[in-house]
Specification:
It is built from 13 helices and 22 strands. It has 462 residues and is of the alpha+beta class. The chain folds into four domains: 18-110, 3-Layer(aba) Sandwich (Rossmann fold), CATH 3.40.50; 138-206, 2-Layer Sandwich (Dna Ligase, domain 1); 209-338, 2-Layer Sandwich (D-amino Acid Aminotransferase, Chain A, domain 1); 347-443, Alpha-Beta Complex (Glycinamide Ribonucleotide Synthetase, Chain A, domain 4). Strands 10, 11, 14, 15, 16, 17, 18, 21 and 22 form a nine-stranded antiparallel sheet that branches. A five-stranded parallel sheet has the order 3-2-1-4-5, sandwiched between helices. A hairpin with a 3-residue loop joins strand 12 (235-237) and strand 13 (241-244). Helix 3 packs across helix 5 (97-103), helix 6 packs across helix 7 and helix 8 (145-154) runs antiparallel to helix 9 (179-196). The longest helix is centred in the middle third of the chain and has 21 residues, at 259-279. The radius of gyration is 21 Å and the shape is globular. It binds adenosine monophosphate and glycine. Adenosine monophosphate (AMP) is lined by residues 137, 160, 162, 172-173, 175, 205-208, 212, 234, 244, 291, 302-303.
Length: 462
């Protein structure tokens, strides 16, 4: 149940009460806007730059807002005052969107650039974990590829080789089976750096074994509210083949979710993280997403992200029943600890529809996302035929052209999400509705949520 205290109500007196700006343009951003409007009957969400395909009377695109330039948001806010701004996109966060808008006098939820560095530099995220006693895989950072090669040949375990910074398609990590594999990965990253002129900075870490889990918390700087867990399908192809990418789909809750596991995740990962942020003087409000491995020695951090996972947002946020506007007010008042998250306890399955190759038979055709170049601008048909009782569609890289037709504009185009009392039911609903959608080169994984133990709905968060 969400309660608002007098103090929290007073903090809303300034600005346009009940209006917010969400800075993002992904399926996750749509998920956050949808959560705001579904859990509060009055809130109006400006979504910048947002997406003009979203058809909701209280989600208003703000295309003049540029993720890489916070001045555009400040200009927008001068004409459209809001109660607060919610920044949920790492490109914006890592460029200091939160710092800039706060300095301009706005109330903002999101980590500062210094706090977002936990994601924008993998080395920084890992050093933070090591400094604060949060379990993390063994790792070393290299700028010299020869030294990195020496290291992967000497250590007694298989490695994962990563570029330190952000990568556009989430393909900055190579999971290696042996030293020869790791040497090849180091050489590929070194060649890429030489080609682009970027400095080479590699993180080489111990390859962990176990089941991966996505862990989410809403932070107010004092405490964390845990959100349901999820499982992400990061590999490009069926059966977890192909390289890592931003993700081809997700399920929630994670198949191993239990109250005992949630307690462990809180005490081993989330609470130490909140304490570490405070100790380091890092101003982090909003969502944190910890990618972790459930190993035989307990949960171990793979990465810390300064925003919600995408496409995990699409399977977790639709289950939230608490008034999210009130939770945000509690974040701003640093009183989140007084609130509890209510969720519907249903299972969800999200499948990403991506811009693939237009003609696999044609050797001259662009290969499709995320393998390489891809041909956007394809008309997206059938979104209006999706039955809202069966599935929800979250918009990512899709925009209207001059005549109003939705067209693909990037790799992940749509996320189709089914819900049910069992994962199988959720999965059937998502895939059933995908059949109604079509665009040239549409590709998706057919095995999201397949072969996973059934989930029986329990009132999670209770
Ligand atoms: P990252 O780029 O850090 O998000 O990693 C992408 C994916 O690579 C993760 O979701 C894991 O599937 C895999 N991965 C990264 N680090 C490790 C590790 N230390 N051990 C095993 N798998 C890993
Ligand atoms: N689901 C992976 C990510 O958001 O990075």
């Amino acid at each position: 149940m969400t309660r608002t205290t007098d103090n929290e109500s007073r903090t809303t007196a300034a600005g346009a009460t009940g209006r917010v700006l969400v800075v993002d343009s992904t399926g996750r951003g749509h998920g956050i806007c949808e959560m705001f409007t579904r859990t509060n009957p009055h809130v109006v969400v400006h979504y910048g730059p947002g997406c003009d395909v979203i058809d909701h009377p209280r989600i208003l695109p703000a295309p003049s807002v540029d993720l890489t330039d916070p001045r555009t948001a400040a200009e927008f806010l001068a004409d459209h005052p809001v109660e607060f701004v919610f920044v949920s996109n790492i490109d914006a966060l890592s460029q200091g969107y939160v710092d800039f808008l706060r300095a301009a006098g706005h109330r903002v939820i999101g980590p500062t650039a210094a706090a977002a560095e936990l994601e924008s530099s993998k080395a920084r995220g890992k050093e933070f974990c090591r400094d604060h006693g949060i379990p993390v895989a063994e790792f070393e950072v290299f700028t010299d590829p020869a030294k990195a090669k020496e290291y992967v040949t000497a250590v007694p375990y298989a490695c994962v080789v990563k570029t330190d910074g952000l990568t556009p398609d989430g393909d900055g990590s190579v999971v290696c089976d042996d030293a020869a594999d790791a040497v090849r990965a180091i050489e590929r990253f070194a060649e890429r750096a030489a080609r682009t002129g970027e400095d080479l900075r590699l993180v080489v870490e111990e390859r962990l074994t176990g089941h991966e889990i996505s862990v989410f918390g809403l932070l107010d700087g004092q405490s964390a509210m845990l959100f349901p867990t999820a499982m992400d399908y990061k590999r490009t192809l069926e059966d977890d083949a192909g390289k890592n990418c931003d993700g081809m789909g997700s399920i929630a809750p994670h198949p191993q979710d239990s109250s005992a596991l949630r307690e462990q995740l809180r005490s081993v990962l989330v609470d130490p993280l909140v304490r570490g942020l405070k100790a380091d003087g890092l101003d982090f409000t909003g969502f944190v997403y910890i990618g972790a491995m459930l190993t035989s020695r307990g949960p171990v951090v793979i990465e810390i992200n300064a925003r919600f996972g995408d496409s995990e947002a699409e399977v977790v946020l639709p289950g939230v029943r608490s008034d999210f506007l009130q939770l945000c007010r509690a974040v701003l008042a640093r009183r989140l600890g007084r609130h509890r998250l209510d969720t519907d306890g249903l299972a969800r399955c999200s499948v990403a529809l991506v811009q693939g190759c237009l003609d696999p038979e044609d050797p001259g055709a662009l290969v499709g996302w995320p393998f390489g170049p891809f041909a956007t601008g394809q008309a997206v048909l059938g979104m209006d035929r999706v039955d809202p009782e069966e599935a929800v569609v979250f918009c990512a890289n899709v925009r209207r052209d001059g005549s109003g037709t939705p067209r693909t504009t990037g790799g992940r185009v749509l996320h189709v999400v089914g819900a049910g009392h069992t994962l199988e039911q959720a999965r059937r609903r998502a895939y059933g509705q995908i059949e109604r959608i079509a665009f040239a080169g549409m590709r998706f994984r057919t095995d999201i949520g397949a072969g996973v133990a059934a989930h029986v709905a329990t009132p999670a968060g209770k």
